[in-house]
Amino acid sequence: IICECVVFSLVYHQLQASSSQSVRTGFIGGEVLLPCVYSEKLPKEVNAFWRDKDDKVVLDIFNGREDKMDPKFKSRVFSFPNQYETGNFSILIKDLRADDAGPYDCDIPKVGYQTKMTLKVTGQFSSTSTLLGTPQCLCSSNLNKMLRLTAFLYQFFVSFFFSFQ
């Protein structure tokens, strides 16, 4: 029952965080998903532009293809090309650095859509850290398995949610 408490606590807090689009939190060395989902009908040719606090090109998507990216983000920023047609232009930033923190914008100018969020990057990620605080109960022998399961469930729920928008 203690292990179930940990899993429930982690999943609950992950889902709470995914509903808040204004602030995203990640750990140095970890990864974070920045959502940009347009739920209305898209024109045939659509572009999306991601910018950071310094107006650097995080990612430009032209007509369904990744186009430009600042060297700072090379090999660290990933999008979901198979979901562009459904309006999902979200990005995943891996290997987070302290200087990744700050505001991010996703613009889809052809439809007049823009979403803004702030990325907070905190201390070093470790396998015993939780993403959103310390749960009320711990099972040390299974904590790593539960964290991996929680990360999987979070990605599943995010993908599931984005597939219906």
Automatic annotation (TrEMBL):
Its main location: membrane. Residues 29-122 form the Ig-like domain. The keyword Signal applies. The keyword Disulfide bond applies. Gene3D superfamilies: Immunoglobulins. Keywords: Cell membrane, Disulfide bond, Glycoprotein, Immunoglobulin domain, Membrane, Receptor, Signal, Transmembrane, Transmembrane helix. It comes from the Eukaryota. GO terms for cellular component: external side of plasma membrane. It is a single-pass type I membrane protein. It is found in: Cell membrane. Pfam families: V-set. GO terms for biological process: cell surface receptor signaling pathway; cellular response to lipopolysaccharide; immune response; negative regulation of T cell proliferation; positive regulation of T cell proliferation; T cell costimulation. This is Ig-like domain-containing protein. It comes from Neolamprologus brichardi.
